[in-house]
From TrEMBL:
Coiled-coil features, chain-numbered ranges: none
EC number: 3.4.21.4
One of the GO BP terms on file: proteolysis
Listed Pfam families: Trypsin
Enzyme class: hydrolase
Signal peptide extent: 1-41
A GO cellular component entry from the record: extracellular space
Name this polypeptide is given: Trypsin
Keywords attached to this entry: Disulfide bond, Hydrolase, Protease, Serine protease, Signal
PROSITE patterns named in the record: TAT, TRYPSIN_DOM, TRYPSIN_HIS, TRYPSIN_SER
Gene3D superfamilies, per database record: Trypsin-like serine proteases
The Peptidase S1 domain, residue ranges: 50-292
Length: 292
């Protein structure tokens, strides 16, 4: 048996240092730590994905995948700890921070031999779909773990995904989906309450892309972090209640049929004043293409 999870996920240490959270899949750490899934009373607005969402399936969104390691994160939910997105038959994009030592517990992903990309498994308590080993991972060397800028990694799979379903990435010319007010969908198996309630089944929530000026005001660079418009996009809804949360990291934000963001970070989940922050895919799609 492999060495179990550290007693205190680093995510929490980070959070204690400031309320800003790095988007890590600490979600996945929690179940393995036997945090009850029956969480304390949820905020009134929180009941979904992702918070404030609704069920969906990998049949309808086959490019949504899970990153998983049972050794590290426990077997109950297939070991899920982050999301990912298939952008090529053998290429999955996710967040760089999903490959950090804080998340994996090892400096190199190769030292977590049961690391898999799970495709086609809406319900993580089941065995549907495929668990595909990784053959290579490119973690953006310019990822800045302090600001979370450049939060992207590219996984090359050891075999093609079964159905080959992929979603196109937004490129530099795709400015329309980043316009404030654009509706976008976020997908994931992350915390549905902000209090450690991890669902078995995939969820989605619809959020609005927000203006860079709004994101910059929410995250001006204090303890809550700094929003950087060149490399990030933020999304939320008026009044809060819908958002990505722990465990959704690396998963997709989709608008106009394109991948526009990867779940990256934020303060809390679904709070009105703190939108979710995503890696701006149009800023990194060229880099991704070089590594696929
Ligand atoms: C996390 O810790 C996380 N509300 C992901 C997304 C957001 C916050 C935290 C955005 O994985």
């Amino acid at each position: 048996m492999h060495v179990p999870i550290p007693a205190i996920p680093v995510l929490f240490r980070r959070r204690a240092a400031g309320s800003r959270r790095a988007l890590i899949a600490a979600a996945a750490l929690l179940p393995a730590l036997a945090v009850p899934l029956a969480a304390p009373a949820a905020p009134a607005a929180a009941n979904g994905v992702v918070v404030g969402g609704a069920p969906t399936t990998t049949d309808s969104e086959p490019w949504v995948v899970a990153l998983a390691s049972r050794q590290r994160f426990g077997s109950g939910r297939s070991g899920q700890f982050c999301g990912g997105v298939a952008v090529g038959p053998r290429t999955v994009v996710t967040a760089a921070h999903c490959f950090g030592q804080e998340a994996l517990g090892v400096a190199d992903w190769r030292n977590l031999p049961d690391l898999r990309v799970i495709s086609g498994r809406t319900d993580l308590s089941g065995t549907a779909g495929e668990e595909v080993p990784l053959s290579d991972v490119w973690v953006n060397p310019d990822f800045d773990a302090t600001t979370n800028a450049g939060d992207v990694a590219v996984i090359t799979l050891s075999q093609a995904l079964p159905d080959g379903a992929v979603i196109p990435m937004a490129g530099p010319a795709d400015t329309a989906p980043y316009t404030a007010g654009t509706e976008a969908q976020v997908y994931g198996w992350g915390d549905t309450t902000g209090q450690g309630a991890y669902p078995d089944s995939l969820r989605t929530a619809t959020v609005d892309v927000l203006a860079d000026t709004v994101c910059e005001k929410a995250y001006p660079g204090d303890a809550d972090g700094r929003y950087l418009r060149a490399s990030m996009v933020c999304a939320g809804v008026t009044g809060g209640g819908k958002d990505a949360c722990q465990g959704d990291s690396g998963g997709p934000l989709v608008a106009d049929g394109k991948l526009i963001g990867l779940v990256s970070w934020g303060t809390g989940c679904a709070e009105a004043a703190y939108p979710g922050v995503y890696t701006r895919v149009s800023a990194v799609s060229g880099l991704v293409a070089q590594h696929m």
